[in-house]
User: What shape does this take?
Amino acid sequence: MTPSATDGERRASALFEGVVGQERAVAALEAAVRSPVHAYLFVGEPGSGARMAARSFAAALLCPYKGCGSCDSCRRALAGTHPDLVTVERTGAAIDVDDARRLGALALRRPLEATRQVLILGDVHLAERAAPALLKTLEEPPATTAFILLADEVSSDLATIASRCVEIPFPPVRTETIAAWLVERGTDPARARLVADGAGGSMERARLLAEDPGFADRLSLWRSIPSRLDGHGAVAGALAREVLAATDRALAPLRLEHERELAALEAEVKAMGERGLPGRKDVLDRQHREERRWRTDELRTGLGVLARAYRDRLVDAVVTSAATATDHARPIRPDEAKGCEAAVTLVSDAARALRRNANETLLCEALFVRLGRLGG
Assistant: This one.
């Protein structure tokens, strides 16, 4: 039986089942399907569910029943094969003017099947140089084109672009939500909590870490660093090499998933009689960017564990000092407390530097040398 429009509105939530922990965003998008505007800006870090929600929202916009979740249009949109759904990825380190012009040219196309087409543009936070060209496209939108822009954050340089869109925030998913989701999928509760703590609010990261047997060992490695530093550069260098080698190993689950994705795409193309995968380079470039981002997230997770280790040392020292004060035991020295506080600051600064594409080896070596000199 063909779904009615009323059925589509009632069942629209089925399209967003994969978007976990973003109830407010999903509610806003389900309401928007009834009377959509020309442009939306989804703001959230990778793994927050923004990209998955974009595909689901696009499916609802293309669905003749306003998002039934079961018709052929919905299925093809979710699979990324609907002819009126186009995802535009940057071709370089940032979105350049040519990328923005390509989006503008695509926006002028007529829909092939649906009453509108949907264009998804990722990494808009990297569009500072292309902002004027992108703004021109958004200010003169064809009536049959809807835009979904994805950004990690919105800087002041992109405020004008944001003002032309309905902004939908996707905050990091709560640790408790991630842990509960993992338990529902069969993960042991203790491991689920450990993984959720290290996921940084990212559902995608949590999903892969749950299947990573080396994750707990990497956390233990980072926690051991304060007790292993002795102020010598050779020790700091050896530790830097050790954590970076562990970070390399952490990429294994993502690389395996990328191999599976590429194999599935190639099999699909072969089944259609094509000899090669169109856009193969674009797929590989995107996967490389994802691996680079994953590596950075892994290091930032480790640095977070390291900062927590220094905070715990400070708390333990204060508690022990207070508990033994009546026994005339040595209280914690001011320089010891300051050393732990300074260590936390150094680690936090290093985590911020990673976002600016700092050299990982030099960053870790310099950090460990400074931490070793602090003692702790």
Observations:
- The radius of gyration is 24 Å.
